[in-house]
Structure formats: C-alpha cells, structure tokens
Amino acid sequence: MLQTLVAFATMSAFLFLVAAPRAHADERDKCRQRIEKAEAKLNAAVAKHGANSPEARDRWHELRAEREHCWTAYHQWWDGRDRRWRTDPDWDHDDRWPEHH
To answer: Bridge-partner residues for 77, per DSSP?
Structure first.
C-alpha cells in the first residue's frame, strides 16, 4: 500500500511538472492572440476613421488593456509589429498612435 502511494505521488508530481510549463505556454499564447486581435482592430479603426477618431481611441485603450494584462501575468507583452515578446512596459511609445492618448 505504501509503495503504491509513493508511486502515485511520484507520478503525480512528474505529471504536474510536465503539464505546468505547457499550461503557462498556452496561456501566454492566448495573450499573444488577444493582443494581435486588438492591434488589428486598432489598425482597422485608424484606416477607417482616422488616428484621432473616437473609434481609434477606444481601440487603442483596448490594446493597451490587453498589453497590461499580459504584462501583469507574464512580465512580457507581445509586439505584433516586431512579432516578438517585449520585456519593457513601453507600449505607450507605439508610433501608430498620436501623442495624445
């Protein structure tokens, strides 16, 4: 009985260690997807309504919220233009958006 319990505990620990990084990677990928979607919406709003429009401003705030969410969770945020994870919270310097955001 004790041997079975030890074997079960060992197997459970192993599965946790294997599954935890995978779950983290899946969640981080969801962050990337949400940021890419928000970036696409911002680009569409700018193209359709102009960079200073209320629609573009709303999409900019949504993009910023997604970036902040990823930053809070992973201390990284996805930069869709450079197609890489960034490790500095400097998304306010996005040159697609006018100075007044």
So the answer is: 86
DSSP conformation class of 50 = -
Contact between 77 and 87 under an 8 Å Cβ cutoff? The reply is no
Query: Which whole-number Å values give the CA distances from 25 to 10, 54, 56, 73, 89, in the listed order?
Result: 24, 35, 31, 12, 20
pLDDT tens by residue, the chain, 101 residues: 767 766 666 665 555 555 455 555 789 999 999 999 999 999 999 999 999 999 999 999 999 999 999 999 999 999 988 899 999 888 877 766 655 44
Q: Which two tokens stand for residue 49?
A: 């309504």
Contacts of 62 by beta carbon, 8 Å cutoff, 6+ apart: 38, 41, 42
> What DSSP designation does 77 have?
E
User: Residue type for 93, please?
Assistant: H
d(CA 97, CA 79): 14
As given in the structure block, the two tokens for residue 84 are: 């890489």
